[in-house]
Amino acid sequence: MADPLRIMFHNPVGSAAYDGLFARAIAAHKRPGTEVHVTSLPPADGAFTHIEYRAYEGRVTAGIVRAARAAAREGFDAFVIGCFYDTGLHEAREVSGEMIVTAPCVAACEIAASLANRFGIIVGRRKWVAQMQETVHAYGHGARLSGFYHVELGVTEFQKDHAETERRLIEAGRRAVEEDYAEALVLGCTLEIGFHKALEDRLGVPVIDPSLAALKRAEYAAILKRDCGWVPSRKWSCEAPPEAEMAAIGGFDVNAPFGNRVTVPA
User: Fold this and answer.
1) pTM of the prediction?
2) CB contact at 8 A, 262 and 123
3) Partners of 147 in the beta sheet?
C-alpha cells in the first residue's frame, strides 16, 4: 500500500478556535489516502483571531515561514496557508525545499479559471478589496474577474449567524451572476467554509470554497509530484536563502512553530 499523502493546512492565527471547523470540512472532502494536519500559530506569536489588516499580516508572516520550514522537515508533501490574502506564500515557498506550498486565493482562482471564462469573488468587507484585487491581477486573472462583492462581515462574523451570512452571500452572488454575468463564484474568506453548496443551489453556477480549493490543489500537486516527478523549482525568483546565512541571522527556527494540531487521518 502506498504511503499516504501528507498535507499540512496551516491556519495563520494564534488561536485554535477554528481548527476543528477546518478539520471537519477537510475530513468530508479529502481523498482516501490523504492525511491532513490542521495547525495554528502559537498564542505567543500573538492572540490573532484574524489577519484582516496588513499590520497583522506583517506580524504573522515570520510564523508562517517558521511553520513551513517545520512542515518540510517533518516530510509533508504539501503545505497550505489558510488565508485568502495568501499571506507569506512566496516567503514560505523559498524555505520549503521540495514541499508544495499553496494558498486559498491562488488555488481558487486556478480552479475558477478552469470552470468558467468570468468569475466573481465574494468578500467580507470593502477593506479587503484593494489588496485582493492586486493579488488576483498578479496571478494573471484580471481579465476573467467580473468584480468583488462585499457583504460587510468581518472574518470572525461569518460563523456567528449562519442564516444571515447565507442571505448576504446569496444576495452578493446574485449581483455577480445576474448583473455582471459571472459564470462562477469564489468565496473570498476561508471562514466562509460550508456555504458554497447553498449558493450553488440558489444561483446555478459553481461556487468555490477557498479552503477546499487549497486542499484539493495541494492534493493534486502532491500527486503530480509523486507520479510525474514535478517538484517545485528553487531557482531564480524562487531561490532559497542560504542555510548558513539564515542560521547567522537567527530567528528562523526559534520557538515552537505550532500552537495546536488536529490530525485528520488517511
Assistant:
1) 0.96
2) no
3) 120
